Amino acid sequence: MRVIGLVLVTVFLIFVALLIGSKNQQIVTVNYLIAQANLTLSTIIAITLSIGVAIGILLISVSWLSLRVKLIAARAKLEKLSKDQ
């Protein structure tokens, strides 16, 4: 059931991205620190969204890993205490 929900959310996001991309075809000049590029607005939106999602996944992964380590330590402590009794 979880996989079906994930697939539906992914399909919905792709559909929304296609809608946004089809309505934003203007050329925009982007100035980097050392370079300059002419990109369509939809490309800039896609790039910034991808970077934001990647940063979000990275932060959530670090948080999840920290909680996972704490859970393993708590389980080990619980197992040790239950063996002592």
Question: Which key features would you list for this structure?
Answer:
elongated, 85 residues, 2 helices, mainly alpha, single chain
Question: What are the segments in which pLDDT stays under 50 over at least 5 consecutive residues?
Answer: none
Kindly give the count of domains. Answer: 1
Helix content: over 70%
Largest sheet: 2 strands, antiparallel
Give Rg in angstroms.
Answer: 22 Å
How many strand segments?
Answer: 2
Strand content: 5-15%
> What would you call the shape?
elongated
Work out the helix count. 2
Commentary on this structure:
By secondary structure, this protein is mainly alpha-helical. It has one domain (2-84). The chain has helices at 2-23, 41-84, and strands spanning 27-31, 36-40. A two-stranded antiparallel sheet has the order 1-2. It is elongated and about 70 Å long. The two termini are 41 Å apart.
